[in-house]
Amino acid sequence: MTGADGRRRHRAGPAAARVVVLACALLLAVACGSEELPLPAVPSSAVTTAVTTAPPPPPTTSVTGTASATRSTTSAPPVTRPRTTAPAAPAAPVGPAGRPFSTEITFYSAYDNDPPGSRAIAHPNARHSQAGGTGTYADPLTLASDTREIALGTIVYVPFVKKYFVMEDDCAQCISDWGSGKIPHLDLFMPNGNDDNVTACQEKLTPGGRVTVELNPPAGRAVSSNPLYSGGRCFSG
Fold it and tell me: Hey, where are the domains in the chain?
């Protein structure tokens, strides 16, 4: 359509009219502030279309089986550590066994020595100038016998009293026994025996028959620290 001024005018259609009305309504609502004007309804088909056409969520990535996702809930078993045991002290070295020797055994002391009451020995030496000793390998006790039976200086270990002895004295009865029939006989010195009570102890410790001793034994045999006789008390093992 052309107006009097010669310019083309467009006729507003229904849709354009609705837009104008809606804009006016909004302007009035803003200007007034106290009245709410109803907005045109949105077709439900449009909402449904918007929901159904929403893009799907991005796929999740599984972490099952990874070191960061998999954690054990079972506590680790306690670690058992071996106990540290202090090393045992080395045993005293033991050399080759000596020669077993079956013999009669008796005891004597200063009380019944010759001369009586003394600790004199028939063969003083660098080890002992008189009867004595402690019974160890380094310091054996005195024994008396016949030098034809065992040589002077021979070390003898007597198991039933757990002590070492050394041949360094004569024994009259031993000499008689060996001379008459080569009967072995050793007489063992009993320290601290200078009273008449020692006689009972000597008889108590004297075996009823022969016993086996060890001639020239090695060091390291068991040694008892108990004296054969002391203060009226007799050896008890």
Answer: 99-234
